[in-house]
Design brief:
The complex is a heterodimer of chains A (393) and B (319). Chain A has 393 residues and is an alpha/beta fold. Chain A has helices at residues 12-18, 32-47, 60-65, 80-85, 101-112, 116-124, 126-133, 138-153, 171-184, 186-197, 205-215, 217-231, 234-249, 263-278, 299-322, 330-360, 381-392, and strands at residues 21-25, 50-55, 76-78, 93-98, 158-162, 253-259, 283-291, 367-372. In chain B, a hairpin with a 2-residue loop joins strand 3 and strand 4 (73-77). The chains are: A alpha/beta (393), B alpha/beta (319). Chains A and B meet through helix 7, helix 10, helix 11, helix 12 and helix 14 of A and helix 4, helix 6, helix 7, helix 8 and helix 9 of B.
Chain lengths: 393, 319
Amino acid sequence: MAGPEPVAPATLEQLCAAKEVVVSTGSGGVGKTTTAAAIGAAAAAHLGVKVLVLTVDPARRLASALGLERFGNVETRVPAEAFTAAGVPAEGELWVAMLDTKQSWDDLVRLHAPDEATRDAILANPLYQNITGKFVQSHDYVAMERLYEIHRSGRYDLIVVDTPPTRNAIDFLEAPDRMADFFSSRLLRWLITPYRSRLVSFASKPFYNVADRILGTQFLEDIAEFFMLFQTMYDGFVERARAVTTLLGSPQTTFVVVSTLEVAPAREAEFFLELLGERGYHVGALVLNKVLPRFLLEPDATDAARRLAHGGAELAGPLAAELDPPVDDAATLGRVLTEVGESFLNYQVVARREAEQRSELAATPEVTVSVPFFDDDIHSLPGLLRLGDRIWR
Amino acid sequence: MTRSSLGLLERKLLFVTGKGGVGKTSVASAIGLLAAERGRRTLVCEVDAKGNLADFFGVGPLRFEPTEVRPGLFAMAMDTEESLKEYLRLNLKVPLLAKLGPLARTFDFVANAAPGVKEILTVGKLAYEVRERHYDLVVVDASATGHVVGQLASPVAINDLVKVGLVRSQTDWMIDILTDADTTGVVVVTVPEEMPTAETLELIERLGAETDIDVASVVVNRVLPELFGRSEEELFDRLSTPAGREALEAAAGAGAGTVLEGAELAVRLRRSRVGHLNRLREGLPADVPLLYLPFLFHRSHGVRATSVIAESLGAELGF
């Protein structure tokens, strides 16, 4: 029997009611983290579910407003009283956690290492410490890995995850695959074979001669040890990486693309929307932040602004007399009128450009919401709830 | 660490960084353009393979091999594999080409696993161009604030890991170039908004704590214009009352009320940004020069934006 036609959700509320994982993506500086937190807060308030917002690098004030410690993979509950105090009693629970890259890697090693000796050797390997500590691209993988782990635990109805601040928003999507590829590469095995057997084969000898001259024996041994140890975790890692990819592509997961209507972020958003679509990921919503108000485009206002910008001085005389009490300094009033008109026309140029960007985002998802310029960043639960209300229904 | 007394464009290597979305690439390209216009042979390099530096010069895709985009101004895109090949060609005087294949591929894997390798190849190539004096100035459209410290610290990190060998001797001279304040500086681009301000202060602190690299300048981009002086503001406030608005609508047309709303929005936006500007000024060490660039209403992107920004930057630097 054919079921009813599936209807695409028309609001974020419906989307969050249907999905288990919401991934907030977009280029840097567009308000991704705030949007993720606002979606989480709204879901906790209105859906009566247990929500986790997993963020990567929240602004300090936002983090402290949510009661997040700076480091550590600890999941913390935002107290129900905070919702009540904000005037929006929560029907569900809001939990927040921050990604700690280093600790997440250590946890992974503990999980996958075949025995304690291997585990300790990996954790102590200088190369491993550098990768997880100093160099950053390992963010991408562990963020998705944590998401998977938390989802699998079944502790939450909904997980809203904020993605790492990469210029290229797709890096994190490819991270699990890259990790799997890396571990299954023949080259990697080839690289460590001679050290394993301590027999340098004829074929690879020139390579080691060269590598030895470039890097020195100690470093080569560190590399070899590192790869050899990691090799022992091969099966676990590859299996996990596949599972992470599967979760991201599953019907339980949806992507929310966040952008502003500035040229560069909008282009990135368009590219990302296209790419997600091509690869068959579910794109649930587009959130456009910091959008200028539409009144900047009104024709009446445009006419008046031109009059003021070009004829402010002439209009000022009669207007000065008209005001009560009258203004003595008509020259200053003239400057004010000119400035008011010019400023309007300036912002109108930007608003027009935004409208154009908006129309160029052709393949937009069903749920597309615009959020106005707020005077200041949001760093309180009431602020998040207000933002949430704007985009929720 | 002593700061350099040299002007921004008199250094030899500038790493331009900033939070995503603040206009890092436009500022990097404008610095390059301005330097070239002032007679310095300049290379602008984008580190992010998927960056859009080419748009700012109105040219096609950039490659590892620099393209001359204006007289005396060259642009390139970093490619760590090419950088490795160049390095091996220059440093290993063996007829290696036949054997480079597997080595390069292996390196690619090592580089992906231990991203420090990629960072060192990037920084190494740039420092090499400086050492060889191929250019008077190398401007780097570097990684965003989150990643740049790792990038800049990579020679030291590698130095700690690799105790002997060619790499060791290589990182030594790189560190010399990077830590000489008259040679190398970091330019932090920001905008007067909350997060970028906080990140900028954090980055300056981290650069001081984790590297010995000088901060050449903080560039505050997209500064909104001040609409009114004090006496003008009083008049504006009077216009914003219901009676004032009515009188203005009678004088300039029905839409004039909406125009006032637009000006109120402009005043509010400007005010909230002034607060962040003040916080930035208070938080920065006194000897870090601040440069201000205006918000561009008309062209925010592309070749025209680059030349407008270069012009403003020139004015800020007193040219």
